[in-house]
Amino acid sequence: KNEVEQSPQNLTAQEGEFITINCSYSVGISALHWLQQHPGGGIVSLFMLSSGKKKHGRLIATINIQEKHSSLHITASHPRDSAVYICAVSTMDSNYQLIWGAGTKLIIKP
Amino acid sequence: KAGVTQTPRYLIKTRGQQVTLSCSPISGHRSVSWYQQTPGQGLQFLFEYFSETQRNKGNFPGRFSGRQFSNSRSEMNVSTLELGDSALYLCASSPDREDSPLHFGNGTRLTVT
């Protein structure tokens, strides 16, 4: 069993829909990261959180430490949100020794 | 402020050769970490450097090594290349403060033939 599990693996939705991507982990963490990767490889860090909830524009990330679960929400989705969204956790040993989820490929259709 | 710069963007090498990849962090960032992304294994942590010292290392063979210079620029070296080393190599920099996110470069795509 992978230490970081994401669901769904693939998600296709219509423009304007509310999107939820889930991440569960089984190890002790110091922080959880949500990242976005567009075709071509570039990765952008969206959120880094260790408790509660963070919001940036149309993106919201929540984490429940007790349940070892995090969600990334996108409101009013747009085709430019199409990308792979990756959940990664920083281990207790190091903020940089990230354990990565497999990613969720999101396609938003106009 | 310039972002994280990785060079080269693309590289083709043959088995047995060695390769050096470069990463220039955002100005003021002292931590540089390296990751390998392959279709089969996904993203995996290679190592992390801070102030010219390797602080953490992932589970990669000794053929993978790195270093960091006094200006925080980092290089990663892979010797005796194998076909399985074909991957996207990403580096990320951070100011290494609590709650500071990672800033990623666009990566170097290495193809080993």
- SSE pattern of chain A, N- to C-terminal: EEEEEEEEEEE
- Low-confidence spans of chain A: none
Number of strands of chain B: 11
Mean pLDDT of chain B: 92
Q: How many DSSP H or I helices of chain B?
A: 0
Proportion in β-strands of chain B = over 45%
Architecture overview:
The complex is a heterodimer of chains A (110) and B (113). Chain A is mainly β. Chain A contains no helices and 11 strands. In chain A, strands 2, 4, 5, 9, 10 and 11 form a 6-stranded mixed β-sheet that branches. In chain A, β9 and β10 form a beta hairpin. In chain A, 35% of the residues are buried. The model of chain A has no long low-confidence stretch (mean pLDDT 92). In chain B, the strands form 2 sheets. In chain B, strands 2, 4, 5, 6, 9, 10 and 11 form a 7-stranded mixed β-sheet that branches. Chain B has a 4-stranded antiparallel β-sheet with strand order 1-3-8-7, with no helix packed on it. Helix content of chain B is 0%, strand content 53%. The mean pLDDT of chain B is 92. Chain B is mostly beta strands and 113 residues long. Chain B contains no helices and 11 strands.
Main traits of this protein?
heterodimer; A: mainly beta; six-stranded mixed beta sheet; B: 113 residues; four-stranded antiparallel beta sheet; 0% helix
